[in-house]
Amino acid sequence: MTQQTQLYEGKAKIVYSTDDADILLTYFKDDATAFNAQKRGTIAGKGQINCAISRHLFQMLEAQGIPTHYIDCPSEREMRVKAVTIVPIEVIVRNRAAGSLCKQTGLALGTEIDPPIVEYCYKKDSLGDPLLTRDRLLLLQLATPEELDYIRQMSLDINRHLSAFFRECGIILVDFKLEFGRDRQNNLILADEISPDTCRLWKQDESDPQARILDKDRFRQDLGNVESAYEQVLERVLGQAK
């Protein structure tokens, strides 16, 4: 399969068409952004690491009955995926309080959330990806009521599988972002990626609030050792995936 026209370039990936209309090629970049792209930088090897982590997690979720866009990886930075139309909703699942949830509610960092909560943001950079209620999602016709119910349940199922997997890796899954797309048959399937770019991940055996961070918060907060943190996540994922 040959690489064709560039269709889209985002903050972390470039998407190309292929000679098969039902298959796209995603290239994972080393670029890093935060705060709606107000902060920019590069994390050496990030594209290769995130591609590998996403590959293993998509394969794990597929084995658990979760439909994803993943097909295979022809190279270390490239992933072949099913062509989908992305639903412009970022779904956030929270197991512990962190980030914007702490700022907006006053909850202490790390407060356990049981049961987990599911939040929705409008995937629109010009508006700053605002947090939306279910009624606002329906008002904007971003999804049908049935699709929102399905997305919520699938997100909670994904959270259950990912939390258990990361727990075996010695990692706490604090929260994470998901994106879904409609395939050619109009089925909703998991898309985008699952990586330290899209998840908050803490070492289980580390109490220091900075040393425990294994995700993009190290970049956001200028904590250093970003590449090392990503590499640690990959090593633990590969070790558990065997």
TrEMBL record:
<comment type="pathway">
    <text>Purine metabolism; IMP biosynthesis via de novo pathway; 5-amino-1-(5-phospho-D-ribosyl)imidazole-4-carboxamide from 5-amino-1-(5-phospho-D-ribosyl)imidazole-4-carboxylate: step 1/2.</text>
</comment>
<dbReference type="GO" id="GO:0009236">
    <property type="term" value="P:cobalamin biosynthetic process"/>
</dbReference>
<dbReference type="InterPro" id="IPR001636">
    <property type="entry name" value="SAICAR_synth"/>
</dbReference>
<keyword id="KW-0547">Nucleotide-binding</keyword>
<dbReference type="InterPro" id="IPR050089">
    <property type="entry name" value="SAICAR_synthetase"/>
</dbReference>
<dbReference type="GO" id="GO:0006189">
    <property type="term" value="P:'de novo' IMP biosynthetic process"/>
</dbReference>
<feature type="domain" description="SAICAR synthetase/ADE2 N-terminal">
    <location>
        <begin position="6"/>
        <end position="236"/>
    </location>
</feature>
<keyword id="KW-0436">Ligase</keyword>
<dbReference type="InterPro" id="IPR018236">
    <property type="entry name" value="SAICAR_synthetase_CS"/>
</dbReference>
<dbReference type="Pfam" id="PF01259">
    <property type="entry name" value="SAICAR_synt"/>
</dbReference>
<dbReference type="InterPro" id="IPR028923">
    <property type="entry name" value="SAICAR_synt/ADE2_N"/>
</dbReference>
<dbReference type="GO" id="GO:0004639">
    <property type="term" value="F:phosphoribosylaminoimidazolesuccinocarboxamide synthase activity"/>
</dbReference>
<dbReference type="InterPro" id="IPR033934">
    <property type="entry name" value="SAICAR_synt_PurC"/>
</dbReference>
<keyword id="KW-0658">Purine biosynthesis</keyword>
<comment type="similarity">
    <text>Belongs to the SAICAR synthetase family.</text>
</comment>
<keyword id="KW-0067">ATP-binding</keyword>
<protein>
    <recommendedName>
        <fullName>Phosphoribosylaminoimidazole-succinocarboxamide synthase</fullName>
        <ecNumber>6.3.2.6</ecNumber>
    </recommendedName>
</protein>
<dbReference type="GO" id="GO:0005524">
    <property type="term" value="F:ATP binding"/>
</dbReference>
